[in-house]
Amino acid sequence: MLDTDTSSGANEQWGGTGGQSYFAAPSVTLIANGGTGGGNGNFNVQQNGANGSPGTASGGTTNTTGGGNAGGTGAGPIGTPPAYGGNGGRGGYVARTWNWYDPGAPVPGSSYTLVCGSGGAQSPFYVYNPRATDGAAASATLSWS
User: Fold this and answer.
1) What are the φ/ψ torsions at residue 42 (nearest 5 degrees)?
2) For a Cys-Cys bond, which of 10, 32, 98, 103 suits 94, CB 3.0-4.6 Å?
3) Three-class SS string for 5-40?
4) How far apart are CA 84 and CA 11, in angstroms?
5) Residue 78: pLDDT band by 50, 70, 90 thresholds?
6) What is the pLDDT of residue 32?
């Protein structure tokens, strides 16, 4: 987001945080959190907005902070010198591999819950062209062999 009129500086307003994604398995829940939104920039005081923080992850054999889908892009540039809104933080990434014989591994034919979180929304707070963009929604890949 980018503001030129009503704020006295950068980072007074923030874009939305991405939603949480999870897979509920018998022995563990895999969780990937969305990144936080970026802050507003302000060209009147020549300040860019801060980028959002990356999302965290837990429960997997691989848990990577900021390893997931991209956050939205900040608005701008506008003004001279140009100012930009901060970009949203990337979502977390979680992965886990089970062998069919592992205790607590998913069982063929059973039902499980998989939720993919939404991307964080751009702020409606004085967004200029080029506009800020929403963050990417979560995605999931399940495979077996």
Assistant:
1) -145, 110
2) 32
3) CCCCCCCCCECCCCCCEEEECCCCEEEECCCCCCEC
4) 11
5) confident
6) 96
Whether 13 contacts 39, CB under 8 Å: yes
Write down the number of H helices and E strands in the chain: 0, 6
CB 88 within 8 A of CB 49: no
Give the C-alpha separation, 55 to 68, whole Å: 8
Model's pTM, two decimal places?
A: 0.85
User: In angstroms, rounded to a whole number, what is the distance separating the alpha carbons of residues 49 and 27?
Assistant: 41
How many residues are present in the chain?
Answer: 145
Instruction: Name which of 38, 48, 40 is nearest 6 in CA terms.
Output: 40
